[in-house]
Amino acid sequence: MKKLIVASAALLASAQASLAEVCTYGESCGEYPPPTNVPEISAQGSIAALAVVGVITLLAWERRRRQA
């Protein structure tokens, strides 16, 4: 029962944020600044970064294995 109450409270808290007033471009949103553009992350760049991390991890693992 306690988990149900906590889950319900979390759901209500997140729902209030999603029901907040939505401002369109050019309107005043009160104290909130206007939205800004952010760069998109391409899938190719993400996969390349994961590949680099994987290779470094495997090289470190192999080096430690050979030293043991």
UniProtKB/TrEMBL annotation:
Keywords: Membrane, Signal, Transmembrane, Transmembrane helix. Residues 1-19 form the signal peptide. The chain crosses the membrane at residues 44-61. This is VPEID-CTERM sorting domain-containing protein.
